[in-house]
Design goal:
The protein is mainly α and about 600 residues long. Among the domains are: about 130 residues, Alpha Horseshoe (Serine Threonine Protein Phosphatase 5, Tetratricopeptide repeat), CATH 1.25.40; about 250 residues, 3-Layer(aba) Sandwich (Rossmann fold). The chain has 31 helices and five strands. Helix 14 runs antiparallel to helix 15.
Length: about 600
């Protein structure tokens, strides 16, 4: 056979590849390589065909031969890295990409590949460095900016992520994979209409279309439209019939979440277990583990629940270790308040209770979201979901060079007024209040910010939500909190118990120092005797008719997106099955009870 024949046959392979006739291209390439076993072009063509056919193990062998024969050709190292990445050989792939970068430091595609490898291996901080560099290259493709934004967000930098995808609607669409990630990133950034637009758009590949529908369904479920999500998935094939692993996994994930939403816990467990059995990226697996743990818990399988939660938290911890926490609040909020600095609570003019927000406080999972939705259902109140308005006021105070909380008493009247005005500017940008409506400010971390609340609004009504501390700890342990500081303290039941006891003690101490009398609302009373509990709340807030609050579920349903883990519960009727759930996990709580004993006693609970 002569050289002309080889070139003609190589062109035939390339033509078949361009026409997406993968099987024909692969067959021709294998025959060509058998005839020319040491030819560089035959090796390269066959390796590329094997990779496109999904035969990554064979592709890796061929690309390895090419790197040995042509060690200074960066493209072969890059392709070898891609094949090894597909095989899950993370360390080998990393070395191959790094060698390609040594040979061609200016290649944005290699940086992108290395960044994606690190991102999917759970190292978003290093991934972000490479992906930002790739996205800044003169010949960078839009997909590179998307991946850089995804890595920035995974590393805890939502601001940079927003900046990187600004103007996305004007970009050419160069990759189904990048567009799928763009849609999910927009969802996580809270741009739900934009995310839905992306997922509903046309995707070229069959697998990409399935993944887009699965992600679209998860979005609809997240904004409390589970029926629409079910309809969206109705025409998709059975997961067993889907060859592409990622598409099969994402469809199983979506079906598991929707099964849980309709309380079909066996189906949820089965789908999520099948999804997790598929090997792949570590990114996103923690969320599936947490969902599986909830299904196991609802089925009464305590041992399985605890085992799955250990897996979930291990994955979450590995990812969180790579996140940059740009603003740590807890060291500031847990600073002690000197008794000598509380005299300000007895002086200074202030807005009336009617002119002040209603502050809803409480440890996460204490019923704060439920109460917020009840208040939001009443025409006298407007809610803004969970926003750091008080925390931002503390930052502005610190920017004045005044320490928090020690310097609260030193604030001059005009400084207080300025901080209060800043609070209202931020609030008004988030919610439109009708004349006479009062703002509901709900943020669990505000239970540590009582001194600032009462400095700005001394006459404000403050409601502290109470729930049995053991139920709170269990519920928190079962949540994949987005806030990195809350996620850190939720890593184990023991760390949660310590945090609960410390936060509760600080709140009680500061309330006593400030002479405050917050209204205590017990979750158990709200669930089992809602009319009486709401009447007591109404008396505190000066609301005569609390009937509208009892219809919170329909109001929350109309609201759509609710940022907290309780988003699915607060669109349902009140249920008492979450009361006392901790008792099934008594062996876990036995060593924690001494830590929680004082909080349990102070709130009037028992462990009997």
């Amino acid at each position: 056979m002569d050289r002309i024949s080889l070139q003609d046959r190589a062109r035939q392979v390339l033509t078949a590849l361009r026409e997406q006739r993968i099987d024909a291209a692969l067959h021709a390439a294998r025959v060509l390589l058998a005839d020319y076993p040491d030819d560089e072009s035959a090796l390269s063509l066959c390796a590329s065909c094997e990779q496109q056919a999904g035969n990554h193990d064979l592709a890796a062998v061929l690309f390895a031969r090419l790197t040995q024969a042509h060690p200074r050709t960066w493209q072969y190292w890059n392709n070898l890295g891609n094949a090894q990445r597909a095989l899950g050989q993370v360390e080998h792939a990393r070395l191959a990409f790094e060698r390609a970068l040594e040979l061609n430091p200016a290649a944005p595609r290699v940086r992108t590949n290395l960044g994606l490898l690190l991102l999917n291996a759970g190292n978003p901080a290093q991934a972000a460095t490479h992906l930002r560099a790739a996205s800044a290259a003169p010949d960078a493709e839009p997909g590179m900016r998307i991946w850089a934004a995804v890595a920035a967000h995974a590393a805890g930098d939502a601001v940079t992520a927003e900046e990187l995808v600004r103007g996305w609607e004007h970009w050419p669409r160069d990759s189904d994979e990048a567009w799928l990630e763009l849609g999910w990133l927009l969802l996580e950034l809270g741009h739900f209409d934009d995310a839905e637009h992306v997922f509903a758009s046309a995707f070229a590949g069959v697998a990409a279309r399935i993944r887009a529908k699965a992600r679209h369904a998860l979005l609809l479920e997240r904004i409390n439209q589970p029926d629409a999500a079910e309809r969206l998935l109705a025409d998709l094939p059975d997961p067993d019939q889907i060859a592409a692993a990622e598409a099969r996994q994402e469809l199983l994930h979506a079906r598991g979440i929707l099964a849980a939403r309709r309380k079909d816990w066996p189906a949820a467990r089965q789908a999520l277990q099948q999804a997790l059995a598929i090997a792949g990226s570590t990114r996103g697996r923690a969320a599936m583990y947490f969902a599986l743990a909830r299904a196991c818990d609802r089925l009464g399988d305590v041992d399985a629940t605890l085992a799955v939660l250990r897996e979930a938290h291990a994955l979450l911890a590995a990812t969180s270790a790579q996140r940059t926490i740009h603003e740590r609040w807890l060291p500031v909020l847990t600073t002690g308040l000197p008794a000598a600095e509380t005299a300000y609570s007895q002086r200074a003019p202030a807005p009336s209770a009617a002119q002040s927000p209603v502050f809803v406080l409480g440890f996460p999972r204490s019923g704060t979201t439920l109460l917020e939705q009840m208040l939001a259902a009443h025409p006298d109140f407007a809610s803004i979901d969970e926003r750091p308005l008080v925390l931002s006021a503390i930052r502005r105070m610190q920017a004045l060079g005044i320490a928090y909380p020690q310097g609260l008493g030193a604030l001059r009247a005009e400084q207080i007024e300025d901080l209060r005005a800043g609070y209202w500017r931020a609030a008004d940008a988030l919610a439109t209040r009708a004349p006479g409506q009062r703002l509901v400010d709900k943020n669990p971390l505000n239970m540590l910010a009582l001194p600032m609340i009462l400095r700005l609004f001394p006459l404000a009504r403050v409601v502290i939500c109470r729930r049995h501390p053991c139920d709170v700890v269990l519920s928190c342990y079962m949540q994949p909190f987005a806030d990195p500081e809350v996620a850190e303290m939720s890593a184990s039941p023991a760390s949660l118990a310590r945090a609960y006891a410390a936060f509760d003690a600080q709140f009680r101490e500061q309330a006593a120092l400030l002479g405050a009398t917050p209204f205590e609302l017990r979750y158990e009373d709200l669930v089992t005797h809602p009319q009486a509990a709401l009447q007591g709340l109404g008396n505190c807030l000066g609301v005569l008719d609390t009937t509208a609050m009892a219809h919170f579920a329909s109001s929350a349903q109309q609201r759509g997106y609710i940022s907290t883990p309780s988003y699915a519960q607060v669109v349902e009727s009140l249920r008492a099955d979450s009361i006392g759930r901790w008792r099934r996990y008594a062996r876990v709580f036995a060593p924690l009870l001494p830590t929680l004993a004082e909080s349990i006693r102070q709130a009037g609970y028992t462990t009997d």
